[in-house]
Specification:
heterodimer; A: 788 residues; Aldehyde Oxidoreductase, domain 3; Aldehyde Oxidoreductase, domain 4; 4 domains; 7-stranded mixed sheet; 5-stranded mixed sheet; 28% helix; globular; B: 156 residues; Ubiquitin-like (UB roll); DNA polymerase, domain 1; 5 strands
Chain lengths: 788, 156
């Protein structure tokens, strides 16, 4: 390992601009003649728009345009789509309702855009929006996914009777039911995976610009995937042909999935820019983000886990209702199906699994992928069942896990996924050591003496990421492939630019990708630029989410580097007047094998471009190679998170006393960055378990509408984390990487809730386990035991 | 439109402003100092922290007119040319940032914590003092490390 190569904790190259305030986020960019857009949004969860009067608004000072859904429809702008087809058990396709970028006729959730004002300043746009008169006929709404399919509940979209989008299933129904019937013990749980708002610190923003001379558009957007945005806006929304639309994702301040999707606002900014003849900028307020960004999670599940007399799991049956919200967002259909049901085996050898998922419409903000996307939900179900099962069976939770771990690889689960390699026992063992599990009993007694309750929670998770083999996901309904692209451009002076289809919005690609290139080519890391985020510069790429930039993005770079090395050797062979097969490339030097004849990287690069040592017939000049890498399988990071809590029964306050994570991410490029990813993921998982939760009232009003009511994790809610790794190389890609971005968020909620239920001795508590909820659970538990 | 006069990063500035203009808007839009960020609308997140007359203030919660006559310092004032402030250096050295959006506010708050609490900061103090600064990326672990290290470095 070199100081700047694979495995080194290289300090980040991108940090300079961020720590000095020189970052260029979308709102930092100003276009000449820029106007500002403000959306008028429905204050009702469901309402017919009888009329919209914009005349008074148009007359307000500084107003450039006031546009409605009718204007959008008249201009034949296409609607937004969900790009992943899911079929129901009966073979019928999912019921995808039309989704115009501005509501036309009916508003279906609080936040649904009903008009947009474009003005000289944001203040003037907001002033004018207050003058728009909308005549709403308020209609009954449904917000609760558990109620959405009931008979007496309003049908939100014509295409979806009983508000049911699909009824999907996976696994063997009969075999699973039979195994449960014959089981020695069945653990049953009702689980709610609470709805969350991703809340990246940078609010979403878009600037749309139209060049009338070239009949082309430019969009600056807070997107995790500029090319995908371009494709959808061109091919489905129909704003412009692909080659006439440039999408630029500058510095983006966090995404966590919420910035994958193609939203109404960027479509409207482009459309309004053409109509107004001036650039149009929109930036979300934070409370606007609560009703405009896709939410996450929101599952209601009933699950049963069957055990035999030895504590071996014999079957798992899961029925989930997944809330999709008012419209199907870009990837929404895939999250509760192929990113969820397929992980229900967890780390365990479970012979029979059956999973049913009903996806439903409600009059709430659309729901889509949020860090973990389906895998936190699956892990929570499995790890809670194992925890409760252990308690019910009287078996130590570590022991019960050991009894059931998969030990032989590759392992084909009953739910599509075939795990390639892993050692779950190793992570558990290491984690238990680091967490001083042996000393737990003593610490519990100590807490008790101090009038506190201490609990210990396990989460031995596995997830599928490195998303994904294109043919496989295509056969499961994906409308796109999930390969990744890279182009390595060597310059005549020997510096290198890597154009990657991945996108960094916090992950540090400018550093980690450069580490790979530095080690491979033997050149200083300062001589390497990583270019991303601009569809005019970078070839088509699928973007960053699903922990794929290492496993898929970097694999594409490796392939391109292979080609660069091969071509460079050809150039070197001419330069050194030797046979190509005799050229050895090592540590940035080309040597003729068995001699001391050599050429430095810089010389070879220059000669590739001056082309003096070979003819055009012998070799093409230049040194630039591209590659597209399609993964052969998902990757399967796995590990063990252990959470120790201390609870004050007087207040219900939960303090995390210790957190140990031992994760297997395969080969690690930069351990500092990997730890940072785990820290951030754990924090979001702890947020879900203890603090966060979207609250809607029965009428579909969003009650938790800002940071005042939605509790974000703060520094004093969290401990320092002990983070370690074990390494089983991923056999599926050239670098052996599995990916690490989501693991913390996937593992954490179960670890926290298992610790709390261990402490209070009751399963009767839901996320978020706020002090009030914990206090009530303790009180209820005491009462039940007094009565007994 | 009323006039406002203040000193920003050592330079006198004056302008006529809409009285509704927040200090953060003035900095970002009038002066094009976009290092200070807006992350929320309820004064919770701290991405907008600057120093006004030597104290940390959330610039989203202050009208620019109330900063009339004040000495305002933003993130852009910390480094001198290529030479970083020790707190900035500590954030880089300790991986105290990922997406960078909360970072200017974090660093400005951190410098103010040192002013008030000294150079020897323990973990508990730092975590409590960060109540007004949200980060969604880092889980705070490395931010706490960075601030402790930066505080020590500021003593020399």
């Amino acid at each position: 390992m070199t100081a700047t190569g694979i495995g080194a904790a290289v300090r980040r190259k991108e940090d300079f601009r961020f720590i000095t305030g020189k970052g260029q986020y979308t709102d930092d960019i100003t276009r000449p003649g820029e106007t500002h857009a403000h959306f008028l949004r429905s204050p009702h969860a469901r309402a017919r728009i009888k009329s919209i009067d914009v005349e008074a608004a148009k007359a307000m000072p500084g107003v450039v345009a006031v546009l409605t859904g009718a204007d959008l429809a008249e201009d034949k702008v296409g609607g937004l789509i969900c790009g992943w087809m899911i079929h129901s058990k009966d073979g019928s396709p999912m019921k995808m309702a039309p989704h115009p970028a501005i509501a036309n006729g009916t508003a279906n959730y609080v936040g649904d855009p009903v008009a947009v004002v474009v003005a000289e300043t944001l203040d003037l746009a907001e002033d004018a929006a207050e003058k728009i008169v909308v005549d709403y006929e308020v209609l009954p709404a449904v917000a609760d996914p558990a109620k959405a399919q009931h008979k007496d509940v309003p049908q939100i979209h014509e295409v979806a009777p009983h508000n049911t989008i699909y009824q999907w299933h996976l696994g063997d129904h009969k075999a699973t039911a039979e195994a449960i019937r014959q089981a020695k013990h069945v653990t049953k749980l009702h689980i709610v995976n609470n709805r969350l708002v991703p809340n990246a610190m940078e609010p979403r923003a878009a600037i749309g610009e139209y060049d009338a001379g070239n009949e082309s558009f430019t969009l600056w957007n807070t997107t995790q995937n500029p090319h995908v945005a371009r494709l959808v806006i061109a091919a489905f929304v129909g704003m412009a042909p692909e080659h006439k639309l440039r999408v630029i994702a500058p510095d983006v301040g966090g995404g966590f999935g919420s910035k994958i999707f193609i939203y109404p606002e960027e479509v409207v900014c482009l459309w309004a820019a053409k109509r107004a003849g001036r650039p149009v900028k929109w930036v979300a307020d934070r409370s606007e983000a609560f009703i405009a960004d896709a939410h996450g999670r929101d599952h209601v599940t009933n699950a049963e886990m069957a055990f035999d007399a030895d504590g071996k799991i014999t079957a798992l049956k899961v029925k989930t209702i997944a809330n999709i919200g008012a419209y199907m967002s870009t990837f929404s259909s895939s999250v509760p199906t192929y990113l969820y049901g397929t992980l229900l085996s967890g780390q365990y050898d479970i012979p029979h699994i059956y999973c049913e998922v009903d996806a439903v419409y409600t009059n709430t903000v659309p729901v889509d992928a949020y860090r973990g996307a389906g895998r936190p939900e699956a892990t929570f179900v499995v790890e809670r069942l194992v925890e409760v099962g252990a308690r019910e069976l009287g078996i130590d939770p570590a022991e019960l896990r050991r009894k059931n771990f998969i030990r032989k690889f590759p392992h084909q689960t009953p739910v599509i996924m075939a795990y390639d390699a892993g050692d779950y026992e190793a992570s558990l063992k290491r984690a238990l050591e680091l967490a001083d599990y042996k000393g737990l009993a003593k610490r519990k007694r100590e807490s008790e003496r101090n009038g506190k309750l201490r609990g210990f929670g396990f989460s031995t998770y596995i997830e599928a990421c490195g998303i994904a083999p294109s043919q496989a996901v295509g056969s499961l309904g994906a409308g796109v492939g999930l390969w990744e692209s890279a182009e390595v451009r060597v310059n005549p002076t020997g510096s290198v630019e890597v154009l990657t289809g991945s996108h960094s919005h916090g992950q540090g690609h400018e550093t980690t990708f450069a580490q790979l290139v530095s080690e491979r080519l033997g050149i200083p890391i300062g001589n390497i630029s990583i270019v991303h985020g601009d569809t005019d510069k970078v070839q088509f790429g699928m973007g960053t989410y699903g922990s794929r930039s290492g496993a898929v993005g970097m694999s594409a770079i490796v392939k391109a580097l292979d080609k660069v090395e091969a071509k460079a050797k050809k150039v070197a062979s001419h330069l050194l007047e030797a046979a190509e097969n005799d050229i050895v490339f090592k540590d940035g030097k080309f040597t003729v094998a068995g001699t001391d004849k050599s050429a430095a990287w810089g010389d070879v690069a220059l000669h590739a471009y001056i082309a003096h040592k070979f003819t055009g017939a012998q070799l093409e000049p230049g040194l630039k190679e591209g590659a597209f890498y399609d993964p052969t399988n998902f990757t399967f990071p796995a590990g063990c998170h252990l959470c120790e809590v201390e609870i004050d029964p007087e207040t219900g306050n939960v303090t995390i006393a210790n957190w140990v994570a031992v994760d297997d991410f395969g080969v690690v490029i930069n351990p500092m960055i990997v730890e940072g990813q785990v820290h951030g993921g754990i924090a979001q998982g702890v947020g879900q378990a203890l603090l966060e939760g979207v609250v809607y009232n029965a009428d579909g009003q969003l009650v938790s509408g800002s940071f005042m009511d939605y509790t974000m994790p703060r520094a004093d809610n969290l401990p320092t984390f002990t983070v370690g790794t074990t390494v089983t190389k991923c056999p599926g890609n050239p670098l052996g990487m599995k990916g690490c971005g989501e693991a913390g968020a996937i593992a954490a909620p179960a670890a926290v809730m298992n610790a709390i239920t261990d402490a209070i001795g009751s399963e009767n508590i839901a996320m978020p386990a706020t002090p009030a909820a914990v206090w009530a659970a303790i009180a209820k538990h005491h009462k039940a035991h007094e009565a007994a | 439109m009323p006039a406002v006069k203040l000193i920003v990063n050592g330079k006198p500035v004056s302008a006529d402003v809409d009285p509704r203009t927040l200090l953060v808007q003035f900095l970002r839009e009038n002066l094009r100092l976009t290092g200070t960020h807006v992350g929320c609308d309820t004064s919770q997140c701290g991405a907008c922290v600057v120093h006004v007359n030597g104290k940390a203030v959330k610039s989203c919660t202050m009208l620019v007119l109330t900063a009339d006559g004040a000495d305002v310092r933003t993130i852009e004032s910390l480094a001198t040319g290529e030479k970083l402030h020790p707190m900035q250096e500590a954030f880089r050295e300790n991986h105290g940032l990922q997406c960078g959006f909360c970072t200017p506010g974090m660093i400005m708050t951190a410098v103010d914590i040192v002013r008030r609490k000294g150079n020897d900061l323990d973990e508990k103090t730092i975590r409590e003092e960060l109540e007004g600064n949200l980060c969604r990326c880092t889980g705070y672990h490395n931010i706490v490390k960075a601030i402790a290290a930066g505080a020590k470095a500021m003593a020399t």
